[in-house]
Design goal:
The chain is built from 16 helices and 22 strands. The chain has 470 residues and is of the alpha+beta class. The protein folds into 3 domains: 89 residues, Rossmann fold; 57 residues, no CATH class; 221 residues, 2-Layer Sandwich (D-amino Acid Aminotransferase, Chain A, domain 1). The chain has a 5-stranded parallel sheet with strand order 3-2-1-4-5, sandwiched between helices. A 5-stranded antiparallel sheet has the order 12-13-16-21-18. Strands 6-9-7-8 form a 4-stranded antiparallel sheet, with helices on both faces. Helix 1 runs parallel beside helix 11, helix 6 crosses helix 7 and helix 8 runs antiparallel to helix 9. The longest helix is centred in the middle third of the chain and has 20 residues. The protein is globular, with a radius of gyration of 21 Å. It binds adenosine monophosphate and glycine (GLY). The site of glycine has 8 residues, from strand 13.
């Protein structure tokens, strides 16, 4: 089988690697030379991921049997539409259905029309002159975000990014000027709890959930610094998370199903990956956002666990509408991803640092290496750009063990870079568990809890058992 991978980061590198292991021929379309993709792919087309016509022509020329799209910018630019029009089945929705990610307003209004309640209260603002009145009337605490795509960077959260409504209104005005902001803003109730990422393959035959992952969005250790696309992530060997029960995961899966049904009932077909960014609140999981693609770094956790099986066939099945469940097998191991990024990433990144990496020693440490957006510099060296550079992925029986493995492997990367060594360490996981215990402590939240998440259903012991896994 011949598979076209669109995008040039570590997520696309692992997608290509999984196809290679399934003995598929890989083709790549990416804006820069990814050393991992270049090694695997039979042909690489250097082009912006928004080049829908060019990518479709390349797919036809190279006789791609199926395409998988990584970045949202490609979905927003209609790359899936162009590939389908050229007769190439795609893992990734058309531009119209991808609005579930590309327009926060489309997403919220779709869910509201179809009675989905597991989301924060929201209000759209179309005109700058309505902003002050809307903020004045909206209950606190709240969040302001642009309607359009901003790479997770345009969100203002009351309590961390601003304190008073006046301050929030002043900062919100500035959002109007950034790309994605001029389409309008959304005000949202602030959700408090623990975030988790739930991805699923979606095709005509159903919604097939993947192991749950937790992403670390803040740039610096201790969860400080700016919001980023994700500095690292972990998954637990039972495919849940230390703070997440299977009942809660199932409720989140229901939200994905409801969204897919809502799209279908409005005439939108969806073949691809649907990613729900959820907050586990005292009142159960609530949806923060959808992505219409694999998460990055989350894809690295999940695909690392894919059982030796035919990944190429799996992609083909999703793209053509019927998925055999027998192809969906994931090993029961914990995984941890940590990204090597330029110093200053999440703010003002230093460009052009040269890194030397000793891949055999990294592999000996039981860790896999994937390339993000780097410039190859020859012989075990790369140059960092403004984006995430190298992804190191460890697996083990317990999460903290996988985290330690990655920290050991980071010793084999030399040069000026930053990585969050605190991700998924014992101390970090204990702190998270403590926060969740407080969240579920009787009286912690004045609003009544639905029966399924009553404090009785969450005695500390039920979370305590997870400690054997972390
Ligand atoms: P988004 O661009 O919607 O993915 O938001 C980026 C990040 O902002 C999320 O991962 C959360 O950490 C935070 N965030 C967004 N919306 C909310 C909300 N309603 N309540 C609390 N935090 C939020
Ligand atoms: N890690 C978050 C994302 O892929 O959008």
């Amino acid at each position: 089988m011949r598979i076209l991978v669109v995008g040039g980061g570590a997520r696309e590198h692992i997608l290509a690697e999984m196809c290679r292991r399934a003995e598929a021929t890989v083709l790549a379309a990416a804006p820069h030379a990814n050393p991992g993709l270049e090694k695997i792919a039979e042909a690489c087309f250097r082009t912006p991921v928004e080049d829908a016509a060019g990518i479709a022509a390349f797919a036809r020329l190279k006789r791609a049997d199926v395409a998988v799209i990584g970045p949202e910018a490609a979905l927003a630019a209609g790359v899936a539409d162009a590939l389908r029009a050229a007769g190439v089945p795609v893992v990734g929705p058309d531009r119209a259905a991808a609005q579930i990610e590309t327009s926060k307003r489309f997403c919220r209004e779709l869910l509201a029309r179809h009675g989905v309640t597991a989301m924060p209260r929201f209000q759209g603002i179309d005109r700058l002159e309505d902003l002050d009145a809307a903020i004045a009337a909206f209950p606190e605490p709240f969040v302001v975000k642009p309607v359009g795509l901003t790479g997770g960077k345009g969100v203002l959260v009351q309590g961390s990014d601003f304190v008073t409504k006046d301050e929030g209104a002043r900062l919100a005005r500035r959002l109007w000027g950034i790309p994605g902001g001029s389409d309008g803003l959304v005000l949202e109730e602030r959700l408090d709890g623990e975030e988790f990422s739930l991805m699923a393959f979606v095709t005509d035959s159903g919604v097939y959930p993947l192991p749950v992952v937790q992403d670390y969005k803040r740039a610096l250790e201790g969860n400080t610094g700016g919001n980023t696309g994700g500095m690292g992530s972990y998954s637990q060997r039972d495919h849940l998370l230390p703070f997440l029960s299977s009942a809660e995961r199932d409720r989140a899966v229901d939200v994905l199903r409801q969204a897919v049904n809502a799209l279908r009932s409005e005439g939108q077909q969806y073949r691809g990956v649907l990613y729900g960014g959820f907050m586990l609140t005292a009142a159960g999981p609530k949806l923060i956002e959808f992505n219409a693609r694999f998460g990055d770094p989350e894809a690295l956790n999940v695909l690392t666990l894919y059982e030796p099986g035919n990944f190429a066939e799996l992609l083909h099945d999703v793209a053509t509408g019927t998925l055999q469940e027998s192809l969906l097998r994931f090993r029961r191991r914990a995984t941890v991803v940590k990204y090597v990024v330029p110093v200053g990433y999440g703010g003002a990144p230093q460009l052009g640092a040269t890194l030397e990496y000793d891949e055999p020693s990294i592999i000996d440490a039981g860790v896999s290496l994937y390339f993000g957006t780097v410039e190859p510099a020859g012989g075990g060296k790369v140059q960092l750009t403004a984006s995430r550079g190298l992804a190191l992925v460890g697996e083990a029986s317990a999460i903290w063990e996988a985290s330690e493995r990655v920290n050991e492997a980071l010793k084999f990367v030399h040069g000026s870079f930053y990585a969050r060594r605190d991700i998924a360490t014992k101390v970090d996981l204990d702190r998270r568990m403590e926060r969740v215990r407080q969240l579920f402590a009787p009286g912690a939240k004045p609003s009544p809890l639905p029966l399924s998440v009553s404090p009785a259903a969450f005695p500390p012991a039920s979370h305590g058992t997870a400690e054997q896994l972390i």
